Task: structure prediction
Amino acid sequence: MNIEENKILEFLRVRPNLFVSVLEISKFLDRKKFESDRTWSRPLLRRMELEGQIEANPFGEYRVKKPEHDTNFFKQALGQPGIKLGDTTIVLLDDFDLEVALSSNP
Result:
C-alpha cells in the first residue's frame, strides 16, 4: 500500500459506518489535485475495493469493509425480536455450575 491508500484508510476508519463520496475523499487527501481533477482518487478506491480493503454502495461511495464476524450486530440483534440469529447458543452465567466444571477436569 502506498501513502495515499494509507491516508484513505485512516480517513475512512474515523467514519466506520458512513459511506463517503469520491469527491470528499479526493478533497481531503490533496486539495491541489482536487482543483484539477475532482475524482482523481477513484482509481485508488476501486483498486482498494477489488483488494477487499474497502466496500462501495450502489451510489459509488466508500467505507472501510466490516469484518465478517461483527459481534456488534449480534449484540444489537439480541434486543430486536424476530431477527434470526442463525446457529447460536446463548450461555448464561447462571446456567454454568463452576463446582461441577472444576470437578470434571483433572
